[in-house]
């Protein structure tokens, strides 16, 4: 019976995951009316797995390095869990044994290693990592917001990493970053974590801090309200899964690879994101005239690593009218040698600031797809369909207050505009002509909003 129910579950690419703190089947009532349909369990119990399957919820055994991994995987098979999640850096032999076992039993294997050990050529439907920053405005010890090189408040985000990862894989990316320890979070902190991944087409694995989990289990009204808001935001992005099929529309191409810091947070991709510069990321081995098509500017972060053929492709781009910036000799920024580190070291940040000044000088005030005004403390992502339409702009507000009077200037002429928010649904906006193309005004954004134009 359980096996029959398992085959009726959603496909792995459509799983909306959450770490589940409990083994009592009664806690499954919390999932009613939410899009969460996949639970990560430290010790899956057959009775719990059965009750979850009856509700259309997949269960996965969450395994960590250091124990008898194969024995734990066998236990998951006996409990008839849908598969296992290998969270952390496992020995290759252990991973192979688990994959062989799951292949024989029809189970799913999801690997969440450190960023440095992610497999981007995987045939799996899902890839991801346990390493991630907790999203939000970076606050210094004196309570002030840290300033970014762009002049705006610095936002701790996984956006740059996700951009780089998505340029290398077609799998759905799961972010396994946990809430900060010994911290009681406001509801907005969880909403930021959801949106930080979702606006890039990834999924954050929902995780509750101990305080919220305890209060939620007791049915405290404030905790239930936070949980309902989280479900509302998850549902917002799941209702519009077509957004995940859109591609970056920016006219700026950033040629960067893993060994030059593409997977590091706080690097050039995040600096450009903080400036709301639409961009596309191109790995070295993906560099060709087709991937550069539609770009008017390109930044080669580490030109010394390019082959003669790749250098000629960029020279051809420049000869055809594109603007090309290559970093100067000696400015190479390597990925941190410690795989546990996902941000740049201080010396690397200083070199990056020099590169950033060159990039900023090149871009100036040009519109590379969209320009946004009055968006300090926010991040955005510009996307488009295969034929260039529709155009979608995701906006996330990481401040603790609603941002008002936002202006959007898009390249091109658009006649219809719709704004979606999790709280208020959709409403039409009135486009108007600007020198750059089309303008739109947004009154206010609480946490996130999505603008679609045609």
What topology emerges from the helices and strands here?
Blueprint: H1 2-7, E1 17-19, E2 38-41, H2 46-54, E3 58-63, H3 69-78, E4 83-87, H4 92-105, E5 108-112, E6 126-129, E7 136-137, E8 155-156, H5 159-166, E9 172-175, H6 187-198, E10 203-204, H7 210-217, H8 221-238, E11 247-248, E12 252-255, H9 268-274, E13 279-282, H10 289-292, E14 297-300, H11 308-319, E15 323-326, H12 346-363, E16 370-373, E17 378-384, E18 391-397, E19 403-411, E20 417-421, E21 425-429, E22 432-433, E23 437-445, E24 448-453
Parallel strand pairs: 1-2, 2-3, 3-4, 4-5, 6-9, 9-10, 12-13, 12-14, 14-15
Antiparallel strand pairs: 7-8, 11-17, 16-19, 17-18, 18-24, 19-23, 20-21, 20-24, 22-23
Helix pairs in contact: 3-4, 5-9, 6-8, 7-8
């Amino acid at each position: 019976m359980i096996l029959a129910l398992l085959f009726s579950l959603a496909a792995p690419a459509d799983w909306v995951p959450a770490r589940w703190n409990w083994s009592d089947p009664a806690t499954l009532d919390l999932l009613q009316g939410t899009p969460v349909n996949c639970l990560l369990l430290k010790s899956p119990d057959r009775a719990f797995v059965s009750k979850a399957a009856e509700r259309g919820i997949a269960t996965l055994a969450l395994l960590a390095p250091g124990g008898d991994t194969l024995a734990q995987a066998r236990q998951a098979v006996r409990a008839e869990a849908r598969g296992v999640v290998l969270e952390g850096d496992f020995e290759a032999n252990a991973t192979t044994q688990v994959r062989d076992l799951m292949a024989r039993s029809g189970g799913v294997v999801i690997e969440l290693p450190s960023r440095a050990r992610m497999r981007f050529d995987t045939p799996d439907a899902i890839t991801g990592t346990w390493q991630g920053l907790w999203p939000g405005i970076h606050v210094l010890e004196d309570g002030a917001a840290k300033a970014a090189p762009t002049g705006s408040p610095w936002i701790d985000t996984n956006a740059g990493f996700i951009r780089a990862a998505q340029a290398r894989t077609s799998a759905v990316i799961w972010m396994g970053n946990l809430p900060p320890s010994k911290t009681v979070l406001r509801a907005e902190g969880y909403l930021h974590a959801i949106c930080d991944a979702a606006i890039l087409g990834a999924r954050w694995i929902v995780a509750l801090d101990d305080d919220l989990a305890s209060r939620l289990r007791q049915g405290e009204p404030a905790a239930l309200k936070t949980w309902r808001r989280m479900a509302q935001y998850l549902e917002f992005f799941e209702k519009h899964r077509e957004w995940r099929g859109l591609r970056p529309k920016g006219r700026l191409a950033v040629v960067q690879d893993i060994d030059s810091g593409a997977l590091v947070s706080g690097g050039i991709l995040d600096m450009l994101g903080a400036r709301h510069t639409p961009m596309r990321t191109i790995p070295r081995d993906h560099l060709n005239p087709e991937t550069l098509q539609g770009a008017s500017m390109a930044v080669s972060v580490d030109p010394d690593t390019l082959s003669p053929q790749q250098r000629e492709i960029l020279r051809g781009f420049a000869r055809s009218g594109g603007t090309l910036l290559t970093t100067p000799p000696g400015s190479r920024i390597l990925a941190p040698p410690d795989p546990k580190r996902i941000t740049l070291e201080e010396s690397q940040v200083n070199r990056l600031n020099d590169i950033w000044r060159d990039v900023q000088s090149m871009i100036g005030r040009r519109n590379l797809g969209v320009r946004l005004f009055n968006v300090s403390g926010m991040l955005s992502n510009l996307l488009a369909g295969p034929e260039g339409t529709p155009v979608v702009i995701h906006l996330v507000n990481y401040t603790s207050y609603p941002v008002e009077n936002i202006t959007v200037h898009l390249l091109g002429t658009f006649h219809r505009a719709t704004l979606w928010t999790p709280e208020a649904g959709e409403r039409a906006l009135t486009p108007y002509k600007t020198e750059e193309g089309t303008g739109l005004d947004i009154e206010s954004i609480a946490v996130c909003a999505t603008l679609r134009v045609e």
